[in-house]
Structure formats: structure tokens, C-alpha cells
Amino acid sequence: MADIPVKTLVYNHEKFFIPEAAAGVNADIQYRLTGDEGGDYIIHIKDGQCKVDEGVIDQPTVTLSADGRDFADVLTGRA
Questions:
Q1: Which strands form 39-46's sheet, in the order they lie side by side?
Q2: Contact 57, 27 (CB under 8 A)
Q3: Which long-range contacts (C-beta less than 8 Å, at least 24 apart) are formed by 12-15?
Q4: For a designed S-S bond to 78, which of 34, 69, 71, 73 qualifies (C-beta 3.0 to 4.6 A apart)?
């Protein structure tokens, strides 16, 4: 299986978001990914919608820090 770029996997959060599973959730999740495929992403969950932006926010609800490729392996079931 070919490696899916980390950026693609992060933006797929919008595509695979299940609004019913996040009923009543309002959160800003900060991803701080390092390494060759690193980057900073914000996952906004509010009003039954999920939106991904690149960048950093001042007060996220939660921050996840990881190596980008390791994070991709978790998302794709390899780790």
C-alpha cells in the first residue's frame, strides 16, 4: 500500500466526519505534526460540521503533537 500524504489524511477529516457522532461537540483541535510531512492544522468541530485549516490557534480545546508519518500510520491502521 502506498503512503497517503499526511496533508491528504488530515483534510479527509472533513470528508469522513459523522455529524451524529459529534452532536453537541464544539471543539478546536490543534495538530502539531513534525518531520518531513509535518505541519500545523486546526480541526474545527462546531454545529455538526468539521472544517480543517492550516495554522496555529491561541487556545485550542486539545493539542495533539506527533511525527507526521507516525500519525498517518495511526490513521491508516498501520500502527
A1: 49-54, 39-46, 27-34, 62-67
A2: no
A3: 13/43, 13/50, 13/52, 14/50, 14/51, 14/52
A4: 73
Secondary structure, 3-state, 61-75: CEEEEEEHHHHHHHH
pLDDT tens string for the chain (79 positions)? 568 999 999 999 999 999 999 999 999 999 999 999 999 999 999 999 999 999 999 999 999 999 999 999 999 999 8
34 within 8 A of 68, measured Cβ to Cβ: yes
19, 22, 38, 46 from 68: Cα distances, Å: 26, 25, 5, 25
* Grid cell for residue 78: 498501520
43 phi and psi, to 5 degrees?
A: -105, 110
